[in-house]
Each structure stands twice: as structure tokens, then as C-alpha cells.
Design goal:
The complex is a heterodimer of chains A (220) and B (363). Chain A is mostly helical and 220 residues long. Chain A has helices at residues 4-23, 30-57, 65-73, 81-94, 99-124, 128-136, 141-170, 173-178, 198-212. The chains are: A mainly alpha (220), B mainly alpha (363). Chain A: Residues 33-213 form the ABC transmembrane type-1 domain.
């Protein structure tokens, strides 16, 4: 009974997507689907590499660490049309179209701090006492890292990669402005109907996969 | 050293992919690019003008020469003139027809070139026209920044309402007002869900977090389209879709902060006799503080940038983000840059203040 308001709110959050699924989808969606998958794969790879390295790096201390963190979270704190306009302008000035590369770049920048947070959390979940114990038992630092950190690191990286993939599949405002022709953006504005239920469906699938891989991501 | 090297790729990625393009966009908010290429002689002469009364004959001569050169250049000249006229009209609407009109008529007048300009259009007898021309011909000016908040500079140097002043300020007010309302609404709504996630077992918490994150990750387009199937169009629908769409951004950081806090603390406080209200105020709220600050900053920034939902659910009342999106799509970089500055300022100021307060004291 105590959870009733929260449950109601959760259902309300999911309501528009339920309506979308019930309404079904029409229109041309094969090409946008391909664009979406390519963009999401590129964004996920870039975000996973940079985010994992950053998450590991932030475990240590170094000069300018807080500046580095501020720069990393900056993309999350910008109103989406602002960086989209900036990327569009940059593309115009350099004579390229922004399109999918621009969208993939932006999605990677959005997802990378989240991957870093997941990796950072996973590495922190290993108690320092265990490392001291390993050292006391004669294990080299390398050995300790292999046996203690890596089992936690790999699921965290996989979870982060899936999160980045899902984020890129669903993101629509920047992709739309850059003209990336992905599922969320291809048919805007006006006839949004084309393939509109497919992007959330894919996102749900990727999230379910992340969930089934085990609760490596605590609360994130 | 190794730690810094590991963090470097992401820092460089953001510097190259976000900070550098942003710098370019911000530069375009103060750069003047339309008039000087079209009227190079005039703008050069006007740089030496003190702005008092009318400029001397040199300026009239230069304008006549520039217009003649533009006419002689054929199609590219016509395009350059149209762009310059567009820019001048944005500042001083009376100038829209003046530039092409003067170019047309000045050649027909058989007199000195300077007089021909004045005869061709009486607007050149007004200080306001020349002041607008001089400002637009400079390398940089505050025109786009002022225009985005509906102000313009007068010949005397003061500020006055531009023609679309009320409209421009309404755009910004709606955008920032909606973002503030979104932060408040999310703050009020997020708590029960965040508590539920924080108190659940790890497996259940992961499931709940994924369910909450799903509408967020599904994208603004899918959410707004779903709402458009359920709600009648109007400002209420746009706001409801905004609030509920961004709620996960508030719920998840708060849940994360609450999970990090020691779960025994509230129980201990209650056992020591604190009333539930005081447990909430003294124990739970402070432990959620970093999450609340991060959530507020995220919701505020994303709400400021929402344009697909409002455009779909309430097309009659665009917000500032919608105007920015339109300007960027149309390639009006000055206008886009001006709006970007006024959206970035509150977003970044808010984020700095919030994250500072959130990182302050941890219980």
C-alpha cells in the first residue's frame, strides 16, 4: 500500500510509450532503422572506450581532476539544441554535412560520463581491505587487480556499452536537428508516425538485455 | 600520471566535440558577417564617423560605389545585397526596401553620386539609418544578443524595444519558466519513486531503475508522440509531457544518493526518538542532497532544451529552444547564437550553483 503513489507514477511514466505501442507503427522504417543501428553502434563503441578509461582514471588522483570531471559532465548540462546548433555550424564551416557522424559523436559524449560513473562505481565496490589482504598473501598488484577488479569491471563495461547503445537509439532532438535520419528523428516534424514505435521497442530490448546480464549496475 | 592519461581521451573528446563548436556558435552571436562583405567601402568610411548627425559626403560616395559594384556583380551581387538588406531590416525594419531601392533608383538620377543616394531614398537623410548601417558593418556587435531579448540600440546609443521585442521576450520567458516549473514538479514527484528504488533489494532496484530510465531513453520524440495520442493539444499537454519525461533525470540521481547513504542511519534516528518529519529533514534529505542537486541541474538544462514535445503538443506557443532549433535549421547563425547565449547562461549558472551546493557537505 505504501508504494501505491510510486507505482502510479511509474505507470504514468510508461503510459505514453504504451499508447505508442498500441497505436502501432506505419510508414517507411527500414532505412531509418539501419541508420539508427549504425549511429548507436558507433556512439556505443566511442562512449565505452572513452568512458571506461575515464572511469578508471578518475579512481586515482591527479592535478586538475575536478576540471576534468567538470568537462566530462558538460554535455549532460547543455540544453540539447545548443550543441546541436553548434555542431551543425561546425559542419557547415568545414564543408561537411553533420548527419550521422555528428549525432554519433554527440550521443557518445552524452553516454561516456554515464559509462565512467558505472565503471567508477564498480571499481569502488572492491573493498581496499581486499587489496591489502591480497598484498599480505603475496599477490603482486597486477595479480590482485586481475583477480579482484576485473570480474567487476567487465560486467560494468558491458552494462555501460548497452546503456550507451540504448541512449543513442532513443535520442531524438539532436539527431533531428543534425539531420541524422535515425528512427527517432527521420519523420519529424509533422508525420511522426513513421517507425515511431520501433525505437522505444529496441531501447526496451537493449535495457532488458542489460538487466538480464545481472545487476552489475547498482541503481544506475 | 597514469590516471590523468586515462581520463584524457574523454576530456579531449568533449573539448573537440562540444567546447570548440560551442565557441564557434558563441562567436557567431557577436560577429557581423552580412553587411561588411556587401558594402566594404561604406563600412570602412563609417568606421571613422563619430556617429553624430549625418556622416559626411565620403560615406554617401562610398555607398553609391558599393551599390553600383553590387549591381554590376549580377546574381552574386544581388544575393549579397539581399543578405545585407535582411540583416539591416532585422535592426531597423524601414531599411528592408531601402538598399535595393536605392541601388535601383540612384543610377537613374543625373547628379553627383552622393546626391543621387539622398534623392533615391529619403531614409539616407536620417541618422538612424546610418547608425544601423555602421553597427552592422563592424566586425562584432551586440546586435544578436540584444535582439534575442527583444532590444535594439538607437542612434543616440540608448536601448529601446525592437519590433519583435515582446515576442522575443515571451519566447525566452516561456522557455525558462517551463524549465523552472519542470524542476519544481520533478522535485515534488521524484521522492516516492526514488525512495522505492533506494529501499528495494538490488535485483528489484535494478529492475525499477531500468523501468524508470526506459521512457527517458526512449527519446523525446517517442514520448511526445505517445502523449499526443492521449492528450488534447495545448500548453497543459506540453508541460505534462515535459515534467513526466524528465522525471527520471530527477529520480535516478536521488535514488543513487539514497542508496549510497547508510540505510541504518534513518532507523537509528527514529530509534532515538526523532519524529518521522525530523528524520526526513535531518537525515534523509541531507543524504539525498548531492542527488537532488544533480537532478535539478539535469532537469533544468534538458527542460530548457526541449523543443520536440512543445512543437508537437502546443505548436501555437513556441519556446526559446524551438526558436533556436528553427534558426539553426534555417542557417541563421547570428539569431541561433544569440538565443544559445541566453539559454546557456541560465543552464550553466544553475548547474554551477547547484552542483557546488550539492558537493558541499555530505552527511
Amino acid at each position: 500500500m505504501r508504494r501505491l503513489p510510486a507505482l502510479g507514477l511509474l505507470l504514468l511514466l510508461l503510459l505514453p510509450l504504451a499508447a505508442l505501442f498500441l497505436a502501432g507503427s506505419t510508414g517507411e522504417w527500414a532505412a531509418p532503422l539501419r541508420n539508427s543501428l549504425v549511429t548507436a553502434a558507433a556512439a556505443s563503441i566511442l562512449a565505452t572506450i572513452c568512458g571506461t578509461a575515464a572511469g578508471m582514471g578518475l579512481r586515482g588522483g591527479f592535478l586538475g581532476r575536478s576540471v576534468a570531471i567538470a568537462i566530462m559532465v558538460l554535455p549532460l548540462l547543455l540544453p540539447p539544441p545548443v550543441p546541436a546548433a553548434a555542431l551543425l555550424l561546425l559542419a557547415e564551416e568545414t564543408g561537411h554535412g553533420a548527419g550521422r557522424p555528428g549525432a554519433a559523436l554527440w550521443h557518445a559524449m552524452l553516454a561516456a560520463p554515464l559509462v565512467a560513473l558505472i565503471v567508477w562505481t564498480a571499481l569502488g565496490a572492491v573493498s581496499p581491505a581486499l587489496f591489502r589482504a591480497a598484498a599480505a598473501c603475496g599477490a603482486s598488484p597486477d595479480m590482485a587487480a586481475r583477480r579482484l577488479s576485473r570480474p567487476r569491471l567487465l560486467p560494468a563495461i558491458a552494462g555501460g556499452a548497452l546503456l550507451a547503445f540504448a541512449l543513442s537509439l532513443g535520442e531524438s532532438s539532436v539527431a533531428f536537428l543534425l539531420g541524422a535520419e535515425t528512427l527517432g528523428a527521420a519523420s519529424l516534424p509533422g508525420g511522426v508516425a513513421a517507425g515511431s514505435a520501433i525505437a522505444p521497442l529496441l531501447v526496451a530490448g537493449v535495457l532488458a538485455l542489460a538487466l538480464l546480464r545481472g545487476p552489475a549496475r547498482r541503481g544506475g | 600520471m597514469r590516471a590523468a592519461l586515462l581520463a584524457m581521451p574523454l576530456v579531449m573528446l568533449v573539448l573537440a566535440g562540444a567546447v570548440a563548436p560551442l565557441g564557434l556558435l558563441l562567436w557567431r552571436s557577436v560577429a557581423e558577417t552580412e553587411v561588411a562583405p556587401a558594402l566594404p567601402r561604406t563600412t570602412r568610411v563609417l568606421r571613422h564617423w563619430d556617429g553624430q548627425g549625418l556622416p559626411d559626403d565620403m560615406a554617401f560616395e562610398a555607398l553609391a560605389a558599393d551599390l553600383a559594384a553590387l549591381r554590376a556583380a549580377g546574381e552574386p551581387g544581388r544575393e549579397a545585397m539581399a543578405r545585407a538588406a535582411e540583416r539591416l531590416a532585422a535592426d531597423h525594419p524601414a531599411l528592408r526596401e531601402v538598399l535595393p531601392g536605392t541601388a535601383e533608383r540612384a543610377v537613374e538620377t543625373r547628379t553627383t553620386r552622393a546626391t543621387a543616394i539622398l534623392v533615391a531614398d529619403p531614409a539616407w537623410g536620417e541618422a538612424e539609418s546610418w547608425a544601423a548601417l555602421r553597427r552592422a558593418g563592424m566586425e562584432m556587435s551586440g546586435f544578436y544578443l540584444l535582439d534575442a531579448i527583444g532590444l535594439r540600440q538607437t542612434a543616440a546609443g540608448g536601448l529601446e524595444d525592437s519590433r519583435r521585442g515582446p515576442h522575443a521576450r515571451a519566447l525566452l520567458a516561456r522557455g525558462i519558466g517551463a524549465a523552472l516549473m519542470a524542476v519544481l514538479a520533478c522535485l515534488l514527484l521524484a521522492w516516492p519513486l526514488a525512495r522505492w528504488i533506494a529501499a528495494a533489494s538490488p535485483r528489484r532496484a535494478a529492475l525499477l531503475a531500468v523501468l524508470v530510465a526506459f521512457p527517458l531513453l526512449a527519446g523525446e520524440a517517442a514520448r511526445s508522440f505517445g502523449w499526443s495520442l492521449l492528450l488534447p493539444m495545448g500548453p497543459e499537454a506540453a508541460l505534462a509531457s515535459l515534467f513526466l519525461g524528465l522525471l527520471p533525470l530527477m529520480v535516478l540521481p536521488i535514488a543513487l544518493a539514497l542508496r549510497r547513504a547508510d540505510p541504518r542511519l534513518p532507523r537509528a534516528a527514529a530509534a532515538l526518538g526523532l519524529s518521522p518529519r525530523r528524520v526526513f529533514l535531518r537525515v534523509r534529505l541531507p543524504s539525498a542532497r548531492p542527488g537532488i542537486a544533480a537532478g535539478c541541474a539535469l532537469v533544468f538544462a534538458q527542460a530548457l532544451g526541449a523543443f520536440i514535445g512543445p512543437g508537437l503538443l502546443d505548436p501555437a506557443m513556441p519556446w526559446a529552444a524551438g526558436a533556436l532549433a528553427g534558426a539553426a535549421k534555417a542557417g541563421n547563425w547570428g539569431e541561433a547564437g544569440g538565443l544559445a547565449v541566453w539559454l546557456l547562461l541560465p543552464a550553466l549558472l544553475g548547474a554551477i550553483l547547484l552542483l557546488r551546493s550539492g558537493a558541499g557537505k555530505r552527511v
